[in-house]
């Protein structure tokens, strides 16, 4: 495994900026994910949005993880191409996307696809497409368990949507999806408190469905900060229950700083080099906003483990200016492995990843399918 303060053999041939992934660390993170669900791969449905990479999907399948969650038609197609058996698009599909979803089903009959609904208009869109094509569609109810982004709260409207799914001959009831992305406190006790409130909503809806003689075939719940807590619920539940973290596959500096209790390691690095010494105790590297996710304030975009007390002064499209104690320590051409603060949108900026294995650059290159459309 690579220590980002050290450079693997062969790294001098990698152009900068580039995305690099340590295959050994991905293996370790996957093994840790499985360990957290007591080795039961059926309890994992990792989100593909973190990596968008068929090679990582192959590593998951080798471990028996043959179901994923995604947010786009393109991500779903990546999974189908990789041979994944079971794909849930965990995003409200509206407009042309409902038709694209059924085209996806037709193009990849070997993969079981499901989608979410959280409204009457959303359900109507799938009904119209299913009837027009005379094709059955599997739908999950997206339950709002506290994030208030998408989803529908527990109540009669949610119950009515599920009843409609169950009563229509071309609709298949898949189960409940509940994402608690609002829960990300660093303090575990605070996280646990909000998790308990969120899972109580899920259980309340399950009870409402059972009271109306509607079974719940599957619950897909949670993200990364609450992964361990959802794993506990999945292990104790009498019904099929899957956890759906994404970031632990590659991890990042943000989660690593705020959630050390989860014990994953960064596997994705941004290779960058010093391109200038502007003076005044500064260096400039080629890691601009086109090379690392810039949605956070400048001090929370990337970490340089090899630079103590780095202070980021400015960032533009192709430049990052850093104040350092002694610029002479970092001559022009110096290579760094930086850790993105938010890995998912950072990975999506690249079309391929250079691969490290056994402490050196390998011959592999992994494709990152960053586009919004593959073929469908």
Strand content: 15-25%
Helix content: 25-40%
Q: How far is the first residue's CA from the last residue's CA? A: 38 Å
Helix count, DSSP H or I runs of 4 or more residues: 10
Count up the domains.
2
Overall outline: elongated
Architecture per CATH nomenclature, i.e. the level-2 architecture of the largest domain: Alpha-Beta Barrel
> For this structure, what is the CATH homologous superfamily of the largest domain?
Alanine racemase
Strand count: 16
Largest sheet: 9 strands, mixed
Task: Spell out the blueprint of helices and strands.
Layout lengths: L17 E5 H14 L17 H9 L4 E4 L2 H9 L4 E7 L3 H12 L4 E6 L2 H14 L3 E7 L12 H12 L3 E8 L9 H24 L7 E3 L5 H10 L4 E3 L9 H6 L9 E9 L5 E4 L16 E2 L7 E5 L4 E4 L11 E6 L2 H5 L4 E6 L2 E8 L9
Parallel strand pairs: 1-15, 2-3, 3-4, 4-5, 5-6, 6-7, 7-8
Antiparallel strand pairs: 1-9, 9-10, 9-14, 10-13, 11-14, 12-13, 15-16
Description:
This protein has 376 residues and is an alpha/beta fold. It has two domains: 11-18 and 262-367, D-serine dehydratase-like domain (Lyase, Ornithine Decarboxylase, Chain A, domain 1), CATH 2.40.37; 85-243, Alanine racemase (TIM Barrel), CATH 3.20.20.10. 31% of the residues lie in helices and 23% in strands. It is built from ten helices and 16 strands. It has helices spanning 23-36, 54-62, 73-81, 96-107, 120-133, 156-167, 188-211, 227-236, 253-258, 343-347; strands at residues 18-22, 67-70, 86-92, 112-117, 137-143, 171-178, 219-221, 241-243, 268-276, 282-285, 302-303, 311-315, 320-323, 335-340, 352-357, 360-367. Strands 1, 9, 10, 11, 12, 13, 14, 15 and 16 form a nine-stranded mixed β-sheet that branches. A seven-stranded parallel β-sheet has the order 2-3-4-5-6-7-8. Strand 2 (67-70), helix 3 and strand 3 (86-92) form a beta-alpha-beta unit. It is elongated, with a radius of gyration of 22 Å. The model has no long low-confidence stretch (mean pLDDT 97).
């Amino acid at each position: 495994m690579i220590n980002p303060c050290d450079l693997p053999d062969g790294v001098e041939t990698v152009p900068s900026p580039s995305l690099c992934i340590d295959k050994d660390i991905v293996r370790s993170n996957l093994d840790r994910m499985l360990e957290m669900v007591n080795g039961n791969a059926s309890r994992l449905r990792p989100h593909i949005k973190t990596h968008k990479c068929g090679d990582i999907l192959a590593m998951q399948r080798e471990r028996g993880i043959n179901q994923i969650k995604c947010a786009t038609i393109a991500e779903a197609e990546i999974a189908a191409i990789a041979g994944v058996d079971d794909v849930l698009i965990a995003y409200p599909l509206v407009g042309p996307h409902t038709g694209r979803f059924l085209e996806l089903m037709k193009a990849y009959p070997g993969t079981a696809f499901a989608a979410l609904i959280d409204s009457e208009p959303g359900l109507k869109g799938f009904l119209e497409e299913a009837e027009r094509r005379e094709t059955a569609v599997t739908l999950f109810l997206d339950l709002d368990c506290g994030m208030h982004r998408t989803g529908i709260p527990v109540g009669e409207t949610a119950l009515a949507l599920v009843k409609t799914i169950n009563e229509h001959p071309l609709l298949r009831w898949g189960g409940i999806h509940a994402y608690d992305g609002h829960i990300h406190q660093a303090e575990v006790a605070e996280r646990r408190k909000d998790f308990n409130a969120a899972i109580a909503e899920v259980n309340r809806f399950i009870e409402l469905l059972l009271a109306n003689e509607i079974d719940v075939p599957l619950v897909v719940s949670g993200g990364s900060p609450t992964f361990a807590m959802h794993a506990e619920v999945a292990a104790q539940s009498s019904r099929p229950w899957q956890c759906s973290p994404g970031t632990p596959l590659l991890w990042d500096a943000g989660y690593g700083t705020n959630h050390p209790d989860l014990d994953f390691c960064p596997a994705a690095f941004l290779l960058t080099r010093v391109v200038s010494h502007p003076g005044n105790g500064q260096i400039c590297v080629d890691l601009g906003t086109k090379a690392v996710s810039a949605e956070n304030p400048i001090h929370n975009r990337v970490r340089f483990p090899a630079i103590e007390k780095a202070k980021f002064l400015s960032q533009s499209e192709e430049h990052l200016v850093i104040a350092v104690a002694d610029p002479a320590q970092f001559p022009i051409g110096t290579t760094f492995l930086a850790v993105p603060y938010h890995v998912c949108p950072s990975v999506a900026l690249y079309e391929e990843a250079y691969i490290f294995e056994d402490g050196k650059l390998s011959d592999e290159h992994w494709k990152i399918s960053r586009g919004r459309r593959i073929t469908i």
